Amino acid sequence: WMPGAIAASWFVLNSSALVLALWAEATLRETHDFARAFQGLRFSRSWLIIAPLLLIPALLSEDTSAGLPSQLYLVMIVLFVLQALSLGHYLARHFQIKRFWLTGSYVLLVLGMPFSLNIASLAGYLDGWWDFRARLQARTNSHNDK
Protein backbone atom coordinates (compact mmCIF):
# COMPACT_ATOMS: atom_id res chain seq x y z
CA TRP A 1 0.00 0.00 0.00
CA MET A 2 2.94 2.32 0.52
CA PRO A 3 3.45 3.43 -3.13
CA GLY A 4 -0.26 4.29 -3.42
CA ALA A 5 -0.21 6.15 -0.12
CA ILE A 6 2.87 8.11 -1.16
CA ALA A 7 1.28 9.00 -4.51
CA ALA A 8 -1.96 10.04 -2.77
CA SER A 9 0.02 12.14 -0.26
CA TRP A 10 1.92 13.77 -3.10
CA PHE A 11 -1.39 14.56 -4.83
CA VAL A 12 -2.82 16.03 -1.60
CA LEU A 13 0.24 18.21 -1.05
CA ASN A 14 0.30 19.50 -4.62
CA SER A 15 -3.45 20.14 -4.63
CA SER A 16 -3.20 21.92 -1.28
CA ALA A 17 -0.35 24.09 -2.54
CA LEU A 18 -2.34 25.00 -5.65
CA VAL A 19 -5.49 25.80 -3.66
CA LEU A 20 -3.48 27.88 -1.17
CA ALA A 21 -1.79 29.81 -3.99
CA LEU A 22 -5.12 30.54 -5.69
CA TRP A 23 -6.60 31.65 -2.36
CA ALA A 24 -3.60 33.94 -1.69
CA GLU A 25 -3.92 35.49 -5.15
CA ALA A 26 -7.64 36.14 -4.67
CA THR A 27 -6.95 37.64 -1.24
CA LEU A 28 -4.28 39.96 -2.63
CA ARG A 29 -6.59 41.07 -5.45
CA GLU A 30 -9.48 41.41 -2.98
CA THR A 31 -11.84 39.39 -5.16
CA HIS A 32 -14.20 36.56 -4.28
CA ASP A 33 -13.32 34.56 -7.37
CA PHE A 34 -11.56 31.82 -5.42
CA ALA A 35 -14.52 31.02 -3.15
CA ARG A 36 -16.90 30.70 -6.09
CA ALA A 37 -14.41 28.63 -8.11
CA PHE A 38 -13.63 26.26 -5.24
CA GLN A 39 -17.29 25.84 -4.31
CA GLY A 40 -18.06 24.93 -7.91
CA LEU A 41 -15.26 22.37 -8.24
CA ARG A 42 -16.49 19.25 -10.05
CA PHE A 43 -14.52 16.61 -11.87
CA SER A 44 -15.37 14.91 -15.14
CA ARG A 45 -17.78 11.98 -15.15
CA SER A 46 -15.07 9.87 -16.74
CA TRP A 47 -13.37 9.77 -13.32
CA LEU A 48 -16.62 8.43 -11.87
CA ILE A 49 -16.41 5.48 -14.22
CA ILE A 50 -12.67 4.89 -13.81
CA ALA A 51 -12.74 4.76 -9.99
CA PRO A 52 -14.93 1.64 -9.65
CA LEU A 53 -13.03 -0.01 -12.49
CA LEU A 54 -9.87 0.41 -10.43
CA LEU A 55 -11.51 -0.93 -7.28
CA ILE A 56 -13.23 -4.02 -8.71
CA PRO A 57 -10.01 -5.92 -9.59
CA ALA A 58 -8.69 -5.24 -6.10
CA LEU A 59 -11.87 -6.55 -4.49
CA LEU A 60 -12.04 -9.65 -6.68
CA SER A 61 -8.40 -10.59 -6.24
CA GLU A 62 -7.55 -13.43 -3.89
CA ASP A 63 -4.06 -12.02 -3.51
CA THR A 64 -3.82 -10.07 -0.24
CA SER A 65 -1.08 -7.77 -1.50
CA ALA A 66 -2.23 -4.50 -2.96
CA GLY A 67 -1.79 -4.33 -6.70
CA LEU A 68 -1.63 -1.37 -9.01
CA PRO A 69 -5.43 -0.88 -9.20
CA SER A 70 -5.66 -0.63 -5.40
CA GLN A 71 -2.84 1.86 -5.28
CA LEU A 72 -4.32 3.99 -8.04
CA TYR A 73 -7.63 3.88 -6.21
CA LEU A 74 -5.96 5.61 -3.24
CA VAL A 75 -5.09 8.50 -5.52
CA MET A 76 -8.66 8.55 -6.89
CA ILE A 77 -10.01 8.89 -3.35
CA VAL A 78 -8.17 12.20 -3.02
CA LEU A 79 -9.95 13.49 -6.10
CA PHE A 80 -13.36 12.76 -4.62
CA VAL A 81 -12.42 14.11 -1.19
CA LEU A 82 -11.56 17.42 -2.88
CA GLN A 83 -14.95 17.41 -4.56
CA ALA A 84 -16.62 16.64 -1.21
CA LEU A 85 -14.77 19.54 0.44
CA SER A 86 -15.94 21.78 -2.37
CA LEU A 87 -19.51 20.59 -1.81
CA GLY A 88 -19.18 21.22 1.93
CA HIS A 89 -18.05 24.79 1.35
CA TYR A 90 -20.89 25.34 -1.11
CA LEU A 91 -23.45 24.02 1.38
CA ALA A 92 -21.98 26.18 4.13
CA ARG A 93 -22.33 29.28 1.95
CA HIS A 94 -25.78 28.34 0.67
CA PHE A 95 -27.23 27.64 4.11
CA GLN A 96 -25.16 30.41 5.74
CA ILE A 97 -23.54 28.04 8.21
CA LYS A 98 -20.97 29.51 10.55
CA ARG A 99 -17.29 28.78 9.93
CA PHE A 100 -17.15 26.82 13.18
CA TRP A 101 -18.93 23.92 11.48
CA LEU A 102 -16.51 23.88 8.57
CA THR A 103 -13.58 23.91 10.96
CA GLY A 104 -15.17 21.08 12.92
CA SER A 105 -15.67 19.04 9.77
CA TYR A 106 -11.99 19.44 8.85
CA VAL A 107 -10.96 18.37 12.37
CA LEU A 108 -13.23 15.30 12.14
CA LEU A 109 -11.83 14.53 8.71
CA VAL A 110 -8.32 14.41 10.16
CA LEU A 111 -9.16 12.68 13.44
CA GLY A 112 -11.35 10.06 11.83
CA MET A 113 -8.89 8.89 9.21
CA PRO A 114 -9.04 6.61 7.24
CA PHE A 115 -12.79 6.11 7.68
CA SER A 116 -13.64 9.80 7.36
CA LEU A 117 -11.76 9.99 4.07
CA ASN A 118 -13.78 7.09 2.70
CA ILE A 119 -17.04 8.74 3.74
CA ALA A 120 -15.96 12.09 2.28
CA SER A 121 -14.84 10.44 -0.96
CA LEU A 122 -18.20 8.68 -1.19
CA ALA A 123 -19.95 12.05 -0.78
CA GLY A 124 -17.77 13.51 -3.54
CA TYR A 125 -18.43 10.50 -5.76
CA LEU A 126 -22.20 10.77 -5.26
CA ASP A 127 -22.05 14.49 -5.95
CA GLY A 128 -20.37 13.68 -9.24
CA TRP A 129 -23.34 11.56 -10.32
CA TRP A 130 -26.20 13.50 -8.76
CA ASP A 131 -24.83 17.09 -8.75
CA PHE A 132 -26.28 18.13 -5.41
CA ARG A 133 -25.36 21.78 -6.02
CA ALA A 134 -27.39 22.04 -9.22
CA ARG A 135 -30.35 20.29 -7.58
CA LEU A 136 -30.19 22.60 -4.59
CA GLN A 137 -29.91 25.65 -6.85
CA ALA A 138 -32.89 24.48 -8.91
CA ARG A 139 -34.93 23.92 -5.75
CA THR A 140 -33.97 27.36 -4.44
CA ASN A 141 -34.91 28.98 -7.77
CA SER A 142 -38.28 27.19 -7.82
CA HIS A 143 -39.04 28.38 -4.27
CA ASN A 144 -38.05 31.93 -5.19
CA ASP A 145 -40.33 31.89 -8.24
CA LYS A 146 -43.40 31.09 -6.14
Average pLDDT score: 83
Question: Which sequence of SSEs, written as H and E, runs from N to C?
Answer: HHHHHHH
Report how far apart the termini are: 54 Å
Helical amount among residues, as a percent range? over 70%
> Radius of gyration, rounded?
17 Å
Low-pLDDT stretches are: none
Largest sheet: none
Beta-strand segment tally: 0
Instruction: Give the helix tally.
Output: 7
Class from helix and strand fractions = mainly alpha
Give the overall form.
globular
Q: Which percent band covers the strand fraction?
A: under 5%
Describe the structure.
The chain is mainly alpha-helical and 146 residues long. It has seven helices and no strands. The protein has helices spanning 2-29, 33-39, 45-60, 68-94, 99-111, 115-130, 132-145. The chain is globular and about 55 Å long.
